[in-house]
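User: Here's a structure from my thesis project, written as structure tokens. My advisor, Dr. K., wants to see whether a designed sequence matches the one we expressed. Can you design one independently, without my sequence as a hint?
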């Protein structure tokens, strides 16, 4: 259980999404928490790094694994402003993350259209915290791009 709470950590992920937006990236942010401490922060850097795998979740996984000195993120929670795609959900599966909390649903590219079975069987899932704010940021970003 988080002393600071899911909303606090989602707000931190939202700050990362705002950084992505300022950099012209799709505004998605993520933080990974262990023992009530943020051990990794990341935002989309696909354009910046010219790397299609540089999603917020992927970068956060790498950072957290380096911090912990382990490929497994057991007893960790990721907070992400958008439902992870299949690539990110698969990486979270391999990392054996304990819990995923996402804000906005991604009906087009989100992993849930394939079902929760893509995650590690022990991974807990929550969604909706700051969902409206995250969805609005994404919609506005794409409106401005068009």
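Assistant: Designed independently from the structure alone:
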């Amino acid at each position: 259980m988080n002393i600071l709470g899911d909303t606090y950590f989602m707000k931190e992920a939202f700050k990362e999404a705002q950084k992505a937006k300022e950099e012209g990236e799709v505004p998605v942010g993520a933080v990974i928490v262990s023992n009530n401490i943020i051990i990794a922060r990341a935002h989309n850097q696909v354009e910046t790094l010219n790397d299609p795998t540089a999603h917020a979740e992927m970068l956060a996984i790498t950072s957290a694994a380096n911090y912990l000195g382990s490929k497994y993120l057991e007893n960790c929670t990721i907070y992400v402003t958008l439902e992870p795609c299949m690539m990110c959900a698969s990486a979270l599966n391999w990392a054996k993350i304990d819990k995923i909390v996402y804000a906005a649903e991604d009906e087009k590219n989100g992993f849930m259209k394939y079902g929760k079975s893509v995650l590690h069987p022990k991974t807990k899932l929550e969604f909706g915290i700051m969902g409206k704010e995250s969805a609005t940021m994404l919609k506005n970003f794409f409106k401005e791009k068009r």
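When you compare it with your expressed construct, this may help: The chain has a mean pLDDT of 95.
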